Amino acid sequence: MIRVMPDAEEHTLTAADGVSLAGRIFAPSAATRGAALVAPAMAVPQTFYEPFTRWLAEQGVLALTFDPRGIGGSRRGRLRDERADLLTWAELDCGAALRALAERAGSLPLTWIGHSLGGQILPFVPGRERAAKVVTVACGSGYWRDNVPRYRHRVWLLWWVLAPLSLALLGWYPGRRLRMLGDLPPAAMAQWRRWCLHPEYAVGVEGERARALYAAVRTPITSLSFTDDEYLSARNIEALHNQYTGAPRRMLRIAPAERGLSRIGHLGFFRAGQERLWQDLVLPELALTR
Question: How far is it, in rounded angstroms, from Cα 187 to Cα 185?
């Protein structure tokens, strides 16, 4: 039997300030049971999530991915001239993606799937109440002292040497060249550095407004984290999700060996070939019609 794979539909998103963003929609070929927005990790382009979003469409889920401004298909001109910070990505870019998917989905239940940063910035996204369920993947506080011990010497180098020097000398962060993350706009990198140096991460830097926004989230959250994550410790994961004081939370800590895998890590959950993992861990958590 020939298996027909869902096609990606290129979709231009328009943020509230008029900026155009690159998006892609994966539509089921049969009955649609729900919708899912995949909010990306820091500096990870939307193309990385294609195996996962194609699989979602095969399950009857209308899926949308996007690139925030300055990343992937939404990068325009010189990165040093891009003024976006993390809150710009949340309030304007994630807001545009959520609005576009909600319009396309109509009355279908919608799930927010946030990978790392994509789960951290949910409270700042306008219209987040439209999501009936939230699934966070490898998502935790970036506070550097709580990072996995073997990674701390690298993150010390990042926050006290590479990031400040790059921003001062180049006016942007050349992560691909440095082989530490991807390329990032200056304001986004500077703000993220401030967050990662504070024990309370975003809440500690952005103040009481941020604390109130986290507490105001009422949508049920399922956290998927992995014992072999090369960046985030269990303490990072718990610290971030403890900020969601008003939301029901289900915390799943997964060891690769328990799933017959040698490795998952921070990025591996979304790579091609993980259909069994998605079937077991994601499908039961999606908000779907019966």
Answer: 6
